[in-house]
Amino acid sequence: MTHFKALVVEETGDKQFTRRIKERAVNDLPDGDVLIRVHYSSLNYKDALSASGNRGVTRKYPHTPGIDAAGIVEESRSDSIRIGEEVIVTSYDLGMNTSGGFGQYIRVPTQWIVRLPPNLSLRQSMIFGTAGFTAGMSVSRLRENGIMPDNGEILVTGATGGVGSMSVAILAKLGYSVAAVSGKRDEKAFLTELGAKEIISREEASDTSGRPLLKPRWAGVIDTVGGQILETAVKAAKSDAVITCCGLVASPNLSLTVFPFILRGISLVGIDSQNYPAHPRQVIWQKLASEWRPADLEKMAKEISLEALNENIDLILQGGQKGRVIVRLTE
Length: 331
Ligand code: NDP
Description:
Shape: globular
Strand content: 25-35%
Largest sheet: 7 strands, mixed
Bound molecules: NADPH dihydro-nicotinamide-adenine-dinucleotide phosphate
């Protein structure tokens, strides 16, 4: 194989970008220890930012996005990774400024590679993808900080999205009582099936009173949206609650007083899945593949071809996706 198919994003003018499926040469991939034939990738919000010219994610174009890839090793200069192994690559620089999983081949450093855990297929690993891994990290942070099912209700925001839906499903599997914030009024059945006990509209989840503290309700929060919904969740957190923060689809801004922190002892914990170290990364993948695996994992994703990526990128930018979108790279 000397050439392969990939989605290529090109800059055509001032802040104008096009997305097309093109033939690319394997020789043009960046240098790296391991060449991987990608079988599946997945669509995350960050991919849509890269695919629409967001310089905070991708500095140089033309570029092939895709922060997730699962596939089989075809060439290896690494002592630890063998030809024929099934592997997952997510995070680090993949799909940002390194050619990513929206192409049939990637070449990456050994340190970026996670061996596919037992009992998980390449396809299933991409149903999780970065979104599922980030949900796993967020749940892990709640638990490390002592938030167990007995502590009380957990709020998940952006609940029908990738990180949100995975968080709802993992928490429900572990026996937590989950309330889900969603803007999609017609997706109550989807969220209930994932295990949410209550669905809250974005309006109800956005306090406009300006009060520094609200009636305490949440023992924990997994926030994926930022802005006013996160502010409201912080103000409505119970004493010693733990709140994780990973996303900014609503807003990157936060306007808060110190009162929830100094009067209720709550903790706001940042999630950076991109730079999470290799060993604990492998541990989270193992948990996702076993005791944290949602009961209906297959129902949480739709599968698309490379050709269908364009319209799905537009949809995720509008906040319109539900669950996970996996991309099949093999023909
Ligand atoms: P998705 O688009 O799949 O999910 C986001 C969800 O948020 C939407 O489905 C929607 O759910 C809700 N939403 C969208 N727009 C708004 C809005 N204006 N106000 C309130 N809610 C909104 O994205 P991902 O799950 O892939 O990513 C979520 C966020 O997490 C992104 O900002 C992403 O960059 C970030 N992220 C961060 C990581 C990290 O390591 N820090 C890793 C992975 C993701 P609903 O309709 O149900 O409300």
